[in-house]
Design goal:
Elements lengths: L9 E6 L13 H7 L2 H6 L5 E6 L12 H21 L3 E6 L5 H15 L3 E6 L20 H5 L22 E6 L4 H10 L2 E4 H7 L1 H14 L3 E7 L21 H14 L2 E7 L10 H13 L9 H7 L1
Parallel strand pairs: 1-2, 1-3, 3-8, 4-5, 4-7, 5-6, 7-8
């Protein structure tokens, strides 16, 4: 089925970075998502899709052996591209690449939202909190820090230009599906007031109840919701292509329900798809699962009538 309502054009941006992770391979994620038909799938929904290709890091990918400097090059370039896509009125889909890319993607969106006077909310679908800082991280891997950067934590000078440093209100960040936190980030999350829906809460209340609360809050504020989807949010039994797999993740149906509800809400304006490592995949099934989830977020459904309309008629 095609998307039922008019949707902004989709602009796809590849970000083949894996320097922020502890394991190589996520740099091939954008190519894998394209190979299994992301563009064709979205066009099949009646959407206008433009693939902008892969962003290139400022100064060149191998400008410096220092990982921090290299990630800064990626994030600087991506913040500019993200901001430009938003100014064009398009819906950006960022293909990763490790989760450090969200430092750049969300920074550009945050600048645009700040200029538009519209509050930015972030739904972080992930097994991990990604709320470490350089001072708290046990590994030092930047892909475990982007949520902390976005909320204005210290220790990230130089990652993006000052013009793109528009911190997100920590109370507007919702971590969803969490099942692995380091001690330092656990303390920071509690102090900063970030909302965390771990798998215990999801098991007890279900994804629909918890997600509906987030949707209602964003809608009441007329906010822009950015969705950052890490493949390790999903259970590795059906999405194994990730170097940071944690058992007990979202099921196939839970993940699709989340995406379908988000589409029906009409509040989502941008998307990250990150941490796909094709080296660890099984005949492309993880990449295909992510394409299917993106399709659900952008309008694929079994019936043209939204679920809430059906329930009113029963």
């Amino acid at each position: 089925m095609t998307a039922a309502r008019q949707h902004p054009p989709i602009h796809i941006v590849g970000v083949p970075v894996d320097v922020g992770a502890g394991q190589k391979g996520a740099s091939m994620g954008p190519a894998a998502l394209r190979l299994v038909g992301l563009v064709e799938t979205l066009e099949g929904l009646g959407l206008t899709v433009r693939d902008l290709g892969d962003v290139a890091p400022k100064g060149g990918e191998h400008q410096d052996d220092d990982r921090r400097a290299r990630i800064a090059g990626w994030c600087h370039a991506l913040a500019e591209r993200s901001y430009g896509v938003m100014r064009e009125g398009a819906f950006p889909v960022f293909l990763g690449g490790d989760h450090s890319l969200s430092i750049g993607s969300v920074s550009g969106i945050a600048r645009h939202c700040a200029e538009a006077g519209r509050p930015l909310f972030v739904l972080w679908l992930d097994a991990h909190g990604d709320f470490n800082t350089p001072a708290t991280s046990p590994s030092g891997n930047i892909h475990g820090m982007p949520a902390a950067f976005l909320c204005g934590e210290e220790g990230f000078d130089g990652f993006v230009p000052a013009a793109y440093r528009a911190p997100v209100d920590p109370s507007h960040v919702h971590l969803f599906g969490i099942r692995s936190l380091d001690p330092g980030e656990r303390a920071l999350l509690r102090t900063r007031g970030v909302e965390v829906a771990d798998m215990r809460l999801i098991d007890e209340y279900g994804v629909a109840v918890l997600l509906r609360r987030i949707i209602e809050r964003v809608r009441a504020a007329d906010g822009h919701l950015h969705v950052s989807l890490d493949i390790d949010f999903l259970d590795p039994s059906f999405a194994p292509a990730v170097g940071t797999a944690v058992p007990g993740g979202a099921t196939y149906r839970e993940a699709h329900l989340i995406m379908e509800m988000l589409h029906d809400s009409g509040i989502v304006g941008s998307l990250d798809i990150v941490e796909l490592n094709p080296i660890l995949d099984e005949r492309g099934r993880s990449a295909q699962a992510l394409v299917d989830l993106a399709a659900s977020l952008l309008g694929r459904r079994i019936l043209d009538t939204p679920a809430h309309a059906l329930t009113r008629s029963l």
